[in-house]
């Protein structure tokens, strides 16, 4: 139990700046009271999540949603609040120029513009001390014949190589794939295999990030995790839940068992280290933002605790003996354990309140920001 507690205490979960702003669907963005008006306030909210959970010490930025004049100043603001800047997320999907793609666009001028943005993101990493760049491309086509699939792969490879060249010694990029949306016929980076192949060609500073909402229904995500870890190519996660498509709901809400299975593979595959980025990529359309993030962090902690509880010796023995039911029972025993008392105890041992949700509600922070902040900003996504 001591080892399990130590592992849980060392866990690091990164929250996304865009989770704190107003968001919604393409039908409606619901404005909430108290949402941040600028990146400085988003970071202040992220610091609250860390203050009550103790395991969320970094916040990811999305550029240009979090554009500021002085990124070093933003990083020191974060440090002053007890958090750091995590992954820098690029954005080559919201300009009119990108209608037919960004780095895969048929027009070299648009490709050059997209690449310049990606390189600017590395400059922002330098200024903030971030070591991780996250690349997601909305590139793809809507109709067969619209553009040449292989030529687009060549253009993608060229851009990725240029970004890779620009990375410093301690920096890396995480390449994100997504099955579909906004492109509906063909996506240029649709799956882990495509992302993996590009990363393998480039080298160790290119790794794959698994966004749990980016797969076809029924996909065995833990298999992907196990495979990528085995190849040294799992860079991290964008955690969220989905019922249908890229729903961006709170992680562990739709399928806590899947989250447990993923964490089980992470731990077994040696991925439970600081080299794996455990990030949330969620939008809270109808629920309160900070509380939604706290709940999500707790869901990841619970899945992790259960995965750590698996009796791996008993499991290996059952597997060696070909005991199908016995092996499954070992896994299910861990999953069915109520780990909430363990986590409450752990928090108290670290000087935190045992129930972060209740402690945050009691803190009065929400009432304060609701009174202070008028006209909060949109997250940028889901408009
Ligand atoms: C795309 O759906 C995505 O998952 C990428 O990570 C984006 O940067 C993010 O959503 C924005 O919410
Ligand atoms: Mn994502
Ligand atoms: Mn997504």
Automatic annotation (TrEMBL):
Keywords, ordered alphabetically: Isomerase, Manganese, Metal-binding
GO molecular function: L-rhamnose isomerase activity
Annotated EC: 5.3.1.14
KW Protein transport (keyword) present: no
Primary enzyme class: isomerase
Keyword Isomerase: yes
PANTHER family for the chain: L-RHAMNOSE ISOMERASE (PTHR30268:SF0)
UniProt-recorded name of the protein: L-rhamnose isomerase
